Amino acid sequence: MLAVCLLLTASAAIAQSTIYLEPRLGFGTFRMQSMKELQRVMIANTGLDAKATDAFGSYAQFGLNVVSDIGEQSRIGFFLEHGSTGGRVAYADYSGEFLLDTPLNYNAFGGLFYHHQSIKESRLRYVAGTELHMLMTNMNLQAYTKINSQTESSEDKFNSYGLGFKPFVGLQYPLMLFPTILSIGYFVDTNYPFHVPGELDQQLVIDSNNKTIHPGWSGLRVNVSVAIPIVR
């Protein structure tokens, strides 16, 4: 409900003032506790000396903000963002190889607000704000086996929906006349369990106790964005 209210407020503000497009590029860490546990179970179930060669590490995100001024030192708007990470379990010997990949990606839509103010009347400004995210995560389980000359592969797809919140602080400085923001924040999310697309009750479980699996996008975020005004 809070996210919806922020989006409605942002839409009303944008309709009455100059619009700024803010392309954004970021880099983040991901907690992925549930996914790492799934990876450990998969390694144990192979019966092989398999290793996790990728474990849902840090990766880039990119997106676009659409914001407008509310007053002289604040902006409000909405954004789109895409991010990804993944894991891999691998084993190989003289007779063949085994790979189990779990790539994940998310698409987020939400509202944002930030305040910016000059530091001692200079061109440098500090920034503080917050974002509310609505998330959709996609995951593929991709298995590949090769024994001598025989190969076999399979793929299963799962979805998850969630919400996220990110407070952030940063600095703004005009580069080539365009205000550029470098910010750091911490993203916190909560997600519905992974399930078969369109079948919310068919959830991915990790063991016989029906423990469900969730994405975990929480972590540090570093972002760079550039404000490009659109004259109306």
What does this structure look like?
This protein has one domain (2-15, 30-178, 185-230). Helices cover 12% and strands 65% of the residues. It contains two helices and twelve strands; from the N terminus they run H-E-H-E-E-E-E-E-E-E-E-E-E-E. It has helices spanning 2-14, 33-46; strands spanning 19-28, 51-55, 59-69, 74-93, 96-118, 125-147, 150-175, 178-191, 195-196, 199-203, 219-226, 228-230. The strands form two sheets. Strands 1-3-4-5-6-7-8-11 form an eight-stranded antiparallel barrel. The chain has a two-stranded antiparallel ribbon with strand order 9-10. The longest helix is centred in the first third of the chain and has 14 residues, at 33-46.
State the end-to-end CA separation.
Answer: 31 Å
**Beta-strand content estimate:** over 45%
Form type? elongated
Q: Order of strands across the widest beta sheet?
A: 1-3-4-5-6-7-8-11
> Would you identify the regions where 5 or more consecutive residues have pLDDT less than 50?
none
- Enumerate how many helices there are, as a single number: 2
Rg computed from alpha carbons, rounded to a whole number of angstroms: 21 Å
> Which sheet architecture does the biggest sheet show?
8 strands, antiparallel, barrel
What is the N-to-C order of secondary-structure elements (H for helix, E for strand)? HEHEEEEEEEEEEE
Organism: Pontibacter indicus
Protein name: Outer membrane protein beta-barrel domain-containing protein
Signal peptide: 1-15
Keywords: Signal
